[in-house]
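User: Hi! I'm a student and our assignment asks us to look at how structure tokens line up with a sequence. Could you show me two examples?

Assistant: Happy to help. In each example below, the sequence comes first and the structure tokens follow. Example one:
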Amino acid sequence: MAQHVKVLGILHIAYAGIVMLTGLIVMVVMGGIAGLVGVTDHSPDSAAAVPILGVIGGFIFILLLVLSLPGVVGGFGLLQFKPWARILVIVLSVLELFSVPFGTALGIYGL
């Protein structure tokens, strides 16, 4: 049983890391697109689009960062066998069931 708890903690940390990395990639891509639009097109429409693209990329990054932090906290709590971490990971596992396909697999394993 202890081995499964450790594996579940590692999987939650890894899944949260992938979500954070995805948010970072989205932010970089949106910033790159905003930079390309700003450099190549000098119309008033592009001047309005550049900051909007940057804000959307930053918002997505912050949103994914905030959503993945409980997974990191719960994963480290499971690795240290904290009793509150089991409750947190059960709640996260239920919520991850809706994230197909990897979140679903992790949610099923966590329950």
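Example two works the same way, sequence first and then tokens:
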Amino acid sequence: SGKWIVEFNDLPRWGFNRSVDRSGGLFHIKESGIYDVHAYLSALAQTADAEHILEIHILDASGKTIEEHEIAGEIAGYVGKWVRMIGSFQWYFTAGQKFKVVYNNKDKDQIYVWEARTTVTQLSKGLDENNAV
């Protein structure tokens, strides 16, 4: 399996979902609302045919990793599996916090870098716009 890297810069503003929050599936951002990442990651996993998530990196402004979390779990193309898989991982970010997700792809052997759009609709459409590096 090849290693893919997905980097998120401008996360979509998202409503507060208490049912998801109880499962620990939300990433909270101080002073700028709550951002829902797991639904996007689920869509990405389905589109990219990803197999296993490997790591989540918290990045500083320059893109340097300041915190790293290794995660072992299969990626499924639906939100419920993501909520169970990343339920114990929550971070409190400042506005504009950058992070990236590293995961294996079943068939390809390329590294991809992707910057998130600003709305869920754009995120969904943007999944096919990755460029190999």
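Here is something you could point out in your write-up. Helices lie at 18-22, 38-48, 79-85, 120-126.
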